[in-house]
């Protein structure tokens, strides 16, 4: 039977038991990280983090421990580095719903202005994998739209959408790449999204993707892979969206709304 250890503090405000093992021994950098989190709460969003030397003196530790703790918090999106300016306390992550709503709708609900920068707009033929996902014959004509996703002007992701060309013969005539694709499909072409299957996983960006998004290729990314279909049950869209994990999180609701 596991022995229960009495602990101070409030439950549910972070990792269970603040991430500290039952034997109580933690790496020095992690102890610094816990204290840094308290400091970030005191400083507030947008505040400049003190220097490594100042933090090492404040916490009575080595600069190496501070450096590792700060690096962890940058990876988690709690801190943001700006070259030549320093390290700043980051704001909360953007939350994107796992639902049949567009990127535009998801951000505007949070008071954030969405944007897009067009990378590719072309007609291509479907390879075997894409054709299989959309129940097509290999070589079927597709419309490919690739765009950098922005949030308040900041690059946060890269979206690559493939649509069955035969289903949308006038799309390129009415579509504005800087606006919501889903709004265009719904309002101008009368498309009804009846359902979708979505998969979320972590991965590293390719050098090309990292350059377009403006991130370090060594940082973990969130990959969303979606296939959508209409009322007839036939899929017509495949989307691959790559997001900076430090800037976005995803949410879904299970069960009825209370």
From TrEMBL:
Keywords of the record: DNA-binding, Transcription, Transcription regulation
Keyword Cytoplasm: no
Region (Disordered): 1-20
InterPro entries: Bact_HTH_transcr_reg (IPR050679), Chorismate_lyase_/UTRA_dom_sf (IPR028978), Tscrpt_reg_HTH_GntR (IPR000524), UTRA (IPR011663), WH-like_DNA-bd_sf (IPR036388), WH_DNA-bd_sf (IPR036390)
One Gene Ontology molecular-function label: DNA-binding transcription factor activity
Domain of life of the organism encoding this protein: Bacteria
GO terms, biological process: negative regulation of DNA-templated transcription
HTH gntR-type domain residues: 24-92
DNA-binding found in the keyword field: yes
Pfam family for this entry, one: GntR
Protein name per the record: GntR family transcriptional regulator
